[in-house]
Design brief:
The chain has one domain: Rossmann fold (3-Layer(aba) Sandwich), CATH 3.40.50. It has 14 helices and nine strands. It has helices at about 10-20, 55-70, 100-110, 125-130, 135, 140-150, 155-170, 185-195, 210-215, 215-220, 260-270, 285-290, 325-330, 340, and strands at about 25-30, 40, 85, 200-210, 230-240, 245-255, 275-280, 300-305, 335-340. The longest helix is centred in the first third of the chain and has 14 residues, at about 55-70. The two termini are about 25 Å apart.
Length: about 350
């Protein structure tokens, strides 16, 4: 992946996202008083979040989990209701200088270009083939939509899954020059595993493409495919002469962003989360929804404050803008993770 990023990312990247379609701790058994099911709880003598610096935010997470999973606690939550929802881009892995799925779409256009020689002189394809982000942005919403639809359709779901897996295994980030999966946040992965060890059912709820995430997220995060919710294209069943397939169509079916996230949670999960984590205003409604739960709940924002190990951005960013959410988190006492101060490691490769 050699795309050059020469200009600030514009609001059109946000538009793009709207349209794209572990535990080594010793465990002690307890009982869910309603179901009688055995609960696994992390031994207090071990640190379930070693990449988190000791402080109020780490303490708040651990205290919350202990409170709602301890038999006899006034805030005990039955296992069936322990639903946790995590955004992906900017929450579980990095998202700068552009959403990683955009780089996939551009690489996909390049791989298809041999069959489309006319693209060399036709926008928006010309801009993609020349790695000209400025020219690509000038194509506006219509141009980006065309890139997304062409790069994410015209194949079966199985074919697309293979295409994405091949890309994620070989492509490298344009500025950090490492595989994209090397840019997963180690502290957040620890948090996912900690919740799972305490019988939380963890879901990804992201504006990113559903089929794109399902191709690799289960192996990387340990979150099953059927617990991934995202934006999606329309699809159709094709009996295919006795070899049934699902074909991806160049039409948007569902947009999983902002108000769409609570709608998607209700539609695809069916239970309101008690734990929700995000990093941008696009996640605000999901956190608001979790905060309305009658069970004790936890809302977490990842605040990108580390310009050395990652990137520093919030209110003015066109990628992962955190403005209204930052204000509401302060007003309501939600946990805001300061990446620079709260994490002793950002990525697994950090010393």
């Amino acid at each position: 992946m050699n795309s050059k990023i020469n200009t600030p990312v514009t609001r059109l990247f946000a538009f793009f996202m709207l349209f794209i379609s572990l535990s080594a701790c010793k465990q002690e058994p307890a009982k869910d008083t309603e179901s009688g099911k055995e609960i696994t709880q992390v031994n207090e003598s071990s640190d379930p979040l070693p990449s988190w610096n000791d402080g109020p935010n780490k303490e708040a997470i651990i205290n919350y989990v202990k409170d709602v999973t301890t038999d006899g606690s006034a805030n005990f939550i039955p296992i069936a209701d322990r639903i946790a929802t995590f955004d992906n881009d900017g929450t579980l892995w990095s998202e700068q200088p552009a959403y990683f799925q955009l780089f996939f779409a551009m690489d996909r256009i390049k791989s298809l270009s041999a069959d489309h020689p006319e693209w060399k002189n036709k926008q928006p394809y010309k801009a993609v083939l020349e790695n000209d982000m400025n020219a690509l942005m000038q194509q506006g919403e219509k141009g980006l939509m065309e890139i997304v639809m062409v790069s994410h359709s015209g194949v079966t779901t199985d074919e697309f899954d293979t295409i994405v897996k091949d890309w994620i295994a070989t492509a490298k980030h344009p500025t950090k020059n490492v595989p994209y999966t090397d840019l997963i946040f180690k502290p957040m992965l620890e948090l996912v595993k900690y919740l799972q060890a305490n019988d939380f059912k963890v879901f990804i709820v992201s504006g990113g493409g559903l089929s794109f995430m399902r191709a690799w997220a289960e192996g990387v995060y340990g979150i099953p495919k059927n617990q991934t919710v995202g934006s999606s294209n329309k699809t159709e069943f094709d009996y295919n002469n006795g070899n049934p397939v699902i074909r991806i169509l160049p039409q948007l079916e569902f947009m999983d962003d902002k108000e769409g996230k609570p709608v998607a949670i209700n539609k695809f999960i069916g239970r309101k989360p008690v734990f929700a984590a995000g990093n941008s205003d696009g996640d605000l409604q999901m956190l608001q929804y979790a905060a309305s739960n009658s069970y004790k709940n936890f809302e977490l924002y990842v605040h990108h404050t580390d310009s050395i190990r990652e990137w520093a951005y919030d209110r003015e960013s066109h990628i992962g803008k955190l403005d209204k959410g930052l204000d509401e988190a302060s007003q309501k006492g939600w946990t805001v993770v300061n990446m620079k101060e709260d994490w002793n490691k950002v990525y697994n490769s950090d010393k």
